[in-house]
Design a protein that fits this description.
Blueprint: H1 2-20, H2 24-35, H3 37-69, H4 80-84, H5 89-99, H6 102-155, H7 158-161, H8 166-207, H9 209-256, H10 258-264, H11 267-317, H12 325-367, E1 388-396, E2 406-414, E3 418-423, H13 429-437, E4 444-449, E5 452-453, H14 459-464, E6 466-469, H15 480-484, H16 493-502, H17 506-511, H18 529-542, E7 547-551, H19 559-575, E8 577-581, E9 593-598, E10 601-606, H20 608-614, H21 617-627
Parallel strand pairs: 3-8, 3-9, 6-7, 7-8
Antiparallel strand pairs: 1-2, 1-4, 4-5, 9-10
Helix pairs in contact: 1-8, 2-6, 3-6, 3-8, 3-12, 6-8, 8-9, 8-12, 9-11, 9-12, 11-12, 16-18, 20-21
This protein binds adenosine-5'-diphosphate (ADP).
Length: 639
C-alpha cells in the first residue's frame, strides 16, 4: 500500500539516516558506535525480545477472551487452535480433554493469565536492560565525544580558532556530548518502536486488513498534521539556537569585559541587549512549546475516533467467525491501541529528532575539515638556537580580501642579539611576533631557524622554548606561583621566586595576603595591569627562553616600575636572544638592530645613533618623544 509505505518511510527515515548519513557528525557517532558493538547488540536483542513478548501477549489475550466469551455448549473440537496443534498429539489431547470440562477451561484461563503476566514481566525486564544499555552507551560515547570535540578545538590553529566566538566554541564542546547521547537514545527509541510497530501491524493484518485500512486512513491524517507542524518546529529550533549562542556570547563577553563596560558607561546598553536576547529566547521557547505540544493531543484524539469506527464496522466483519465478534474485536482494539502508542512515540521521536537536528548540524560545523586549518604536528624537535633566526622575504595577509599586513620582510635576529621593532600602530610589529611564535602561517616567504625552515621543526617544542610577554596578559584563576610556573611542572618555588625577583614582581607579591600562594581572581581582576605584566615577564624569564619576545611588555607599567623592569630586561638581553616591540624609544636605545616599520615594510634599520644620523622616520619619532616624554603610545604619532 503506497500510503503505508510512505508512512513507514517517513518514520524510518531518521533510523536509516543513522546508517547512511555521510556527514562528519554521523560518521563520528558511527565510529564510536563500532567501539560499543556489544552494547549495541544487547540493545538490538532486547528490543527484539521485548517486541516478541508484546506480540505473544496479544495472542494470549485473544485466546483468553475466546475462552471466557464462548457459550457453555460450544463445540470445542472446532476451536481453531486445536486444528493448529494437530501435529503435537499430547498437547492436542490434553487441551481437548481440558476444554471439555468447566474446571478444565477455568484452569486454562488461569494458565493463560499467568503466561500473559510472565510475558509482560519479561518485556519489562528487557525494556529495562534496553534502557540501561542505551544509557551506558550514551554516557560513554558522550564523554568520548566531548573529549574529541575538545581535542578538535585545540587542534585548530590559533588563527582559525580565533575566527570563532568564545560562546560558539564553548557550546561546541559543552553540548556535543549531550547531542550525541540524545541522538543515540532517539535512534534506540526508533528501533524499538519500529519493531513493535511491525509486530502489531502483522497482528492487525491477520485479524482484518479492512479494519487496518480504516486505521491507515487515520494515520494518513496524522501524517498530514505532522507535515504541517514539523518544518515550523525545526525552523524555530534553529532560530532558538542562534539566539542562545548570541546570549551565551553576550554573557561571556559582558563578564570578561566588565572593566570596559564600567569604564565606558556601557552597563545600561549591555543590560538592554541582554534583556532583548532573553525576551527573544523566551518568545521562541514559548512558540516552540506551543507547536510541539500540539502534535500530541491531535495524535491522541484520532485513535479514539478510529476505535469507535472500528467497533461499529466489526459487527459486520466478524459476525461469521467461529470464535464470535468479541475476541477479534478486543484483540484488534488492543493491538491498534498499542500501535497508536507506538505511532505516537514515533511521532514524538521524529519531533525530537527534528529538534536535535539543529544541534547535530552544529556538530557538523565544527567537525567538517574543509573550512579549517589545523596545528601542524611532527617535525624535528627544537633543541636551541646556535646561529640565529632569519625572516626571509616574509609576507602576511590575514585574509584574501584584506591588504597585506607584512610585505617582503628581510630580517636577521642573531643568537644573543636584541632586535627592536618600532613604528606606529598597525605597522605590522605584532604580526612579526605572532608569525615567529607560530600563531599564524605566513602567506609568503619563510622563517629559518639556523637555516632550517620553521615548518620542519616541531611546533610545540619550538613554542615551549619561547618566552612571550605581550600587552594582553592571561592569568589563570590559580596561585601566583602556579601562574608564574605555568607549563613548567618541575619549576621549584626557589626558581619561581628568582624569576619574580628578576621581573621586579617580588616586592608586590610579598605584600599580597598569602604571598606566592595568593589566588588570582578570574582574568587577574585583583592585580593592576602593570603587576600582571610583571607576572607575565617572570613567567617568561623562568622558562629560560631561547628567544624572548617582548611585545610592548612595559606599556602598562608606571615609570618607576618601568625603570626597574627595564633594568631586568637589559640584564636578560645581554645573555639572550630578544625581539622587542616598543612604544617608548628610550627603552630600546641599546638594541643591536632597530627596525622602523610602516605599512608592513621595514623602512629603516640600524643602531640608535645610526638611525638618528639618518634624520628619517626614527629621528622624527625620537624628537617627538623627547618633546613629549610622557607620551606612552605611538598610536597617535604619525610616522
Ligand atoms: P602593530 O603591532 O604594529 O600595531 P599589527 O601587527 O597588530 O600591528 O597589525 C598589522 C595589520 O594587520 C593591521 O592592519 C591590523 O589591523 C591587521 N591585523 C592584525 N591582526 C589581525 C587579525 N587577526 N585579523 C585580521 N587583521 C589583523
Amino acid at each position: 500500500m503506497p500510503l503505508l509505505h510512505r508512512i513507514a518511510r517517513r518514520l524510518t527515515g531518521p533510523l536509516l539516516a543513522a546508517f547512511t548519513d555521510q556527514r562528519p557528525a554521523a560518521r563520528l557517532i558511527r565510529h564510536s558506535a563500532k567501539k560499543y558493538w556489544k552494547l549495541l547488540a544487547l540493545n538490538f536483542g532486547t528490543s527484539l525480545l521485548a517486541s516478541l513478548s508484546e506480540g505473544a501477549t496479544l495472542g494470549i489475550v485473544f485466546l483468553s477472551v475466546s475462552l471466557i466469551s464462548a457459550p457453555e455448549n460450544s463445540d470445542w473440537s472446532k476451536f481453531s487452535i486445536l486444528g493448529n496443534l494437530s501435529q503435537f498429539d499430547w498437547l492436542h489431547d490434553w487441551l481437548s480433554s481440558a476444554l471439555s470440562t468447566r474446571t478444565g477451561r477455568d484452569g486454562i484461563f488461569v494458565l493463560l493469565l499467568i503466561t500473559a503476566v510472565v510475558l509482560q514481566g519479561l518485556m519489562a525486564v528487557t525494556s529495562y536492560v534496553n534502557s540501561i544499555s542505551t544509557a551506558v552507551m550514551g554516557s560513554r560515547m558522550g564523554a568520548e565525544i566531548t573529549g574529541k570535540l575538545n581535542d578538535r578545538v585545540l587542534s585548530l590553529t590559533f588563527g582559525c580558532a580565533s575566527r570563532y566566538r568564545v560562546g560558539d566554541l564553548l557550546l561546541y564542546v559543552g553540548s556535543g556530548g549531550s547531542t550525541v547521547q540524545t541522538e543515540i537514545s532517539l535512534a534506540n527509541g526508533l528501533l524499538m518502536n519500529s519493531l513493535q510497530l511491525l509486530i502489531y501491524l502483522a497482528i492487525l493484518v491477520a485479524i482484518s486488513p479492512w479494519l487496518l485500512l480504516v486505521a491507515s486512513g487515520m494515520a494518513a491524517i496524522m501524517q498530514a498534521v505532522q507535515k504541517l507542524l514539523l518544518p515550523r518546529i525545526r525552523s524555530i529550533s534553529r532560530e532558538q539556537q542562534v539566539v542562545n549562542v548570541e546570549l551565551s556570547s553576550h554573557q561571556n563577553e559582558q563578564i570578561q569585559g566588565l572593566r570596559l563596560l564600567h569604564s565606558t558607561g556601557q552597563l545600561e546598553s549591555s543590560r538592554k541587549r541582554l534583556r532583548f536576547l532573553l525576551n527573544e529566547s523566551k518568545r521562541l521557547s514559548i512558540r516552540q512549546s506551543k507547536l510541539s505540544n500540539l502534535v500530541q493531543p491531535i495524535s491522541n484524539m484520532l485513535p479514539i475516533i478510529s476505535i469507535a469506527l472500528i467497533a461499529a464496522l466489526s459487527l459486520f466483519i466478524f459476525k461469521d467467525r467461529s470464535s464470535g465478534v468479541l475476541p477479534s474485536l478486543v484483540t484488534f482494539i488492543i493491538a491498534l491501541q498499542r500501535l497508536n502508542q507506538r505511532v505516537g512515540s514515533l511521532t514524538g521521536l521524529a519531533t525530537s529528532y527534528a529538534a536535535n537536528s539543529a544541534n547535530v548540524e552544529r556538530l557538523n560545523e565544527i567537525l567538517r575539515d574543509d573550512d579549517k586549518e589545523f596545528v601542524r604536528s611532527g617535525g624535528v624537535p627544537f633543541t636551541g638556537i646556535t646561529d640565529g633566526i632569519q625572516l626571509d622575504d616574509l609576507s602576511m595577509r590575514y585574509s584574501p580580501e584584506l591588504p597585506e599586513a607584512l610585505s617582503s620582510i628581510q630580517l636577521r635576529i642573531g643568537r644573543g642579539q636584541t632586535v627592536a621593532l618600532v613604528g606606529s600602530s598597525g605597522a605590522g610589529k605584532s604580526t612579526i611576533a605572532d608569525l615567529l611564535v607560530g600563531l599564524y602561517d605566513p602567506t609568503g616567504g619563510r622563517i629559518l631557524i639556523d637555516g632550517v625552515d620553521i615548518h620542519s621543526i616541531n611546533l610545540s617544542s619550538w613554542q615551549q622554548r619561547l618566552g612571550v610577554v605581550s600587552q594582553d596578559t592571561f592569568l589563570f584563576n590559580a596561585s601566583i606561583a602556579s601562574n608564574i610556573g605555568f607549563g613548567l611542572e618541575r619549576a621549584s618555588l626557589e626558581d619561581i621566586k628568582d624569576a619574580a625577583a628578576k621581573a621586579q614582581a617580588a616586592g608586590f607579591i610579598a605584600d599580597l595576603p598569602e604571598g606566592y600562594e595568593t589566588k588570582i581572581g578570574e582574568r587577574g581582576y585583583r592585580l593592576s595591569g602593570g603587576q600582571r605584566q610583571r607576572i607575565s615577564l617572570a613567567r617568561a624569564i623562568l622558562r629560560k627562553p631561547e628567544l624572548l619576545i617582548l611585545d610592548e611588555a612595559t606599556s602598562a607599567l608606571d615609570s618607576q616600575s618601568e625603570r626597574l623592569v627595564q633594568q631586568a630586561i637589559e640584564q636578560f638581553e645581554r645573555q639572550h636572544t630578544v625581539l622587542v616591540i616598543a612604544h617608548r624609544l628610550s627603552t630600546i636605545v641599546n638594541a643591536d638592530v632597530i627596525c622602523v616599520l610602516a605599512e608592513g615594510r621595514i623602512q629603516e634599520r640600524g643602531r640608535h645613533h645610526e638611525l638618528l644620523a639618518q634624520s628619517g622616520l626614527y629621528a622624527k619619532l625620537w624628537s617627538d618623544q623627547s618633546k613629549h616624554p610622557n607620551q606612552t603610545s605611538m598610536a597617535a604619532t604619525p610616522v
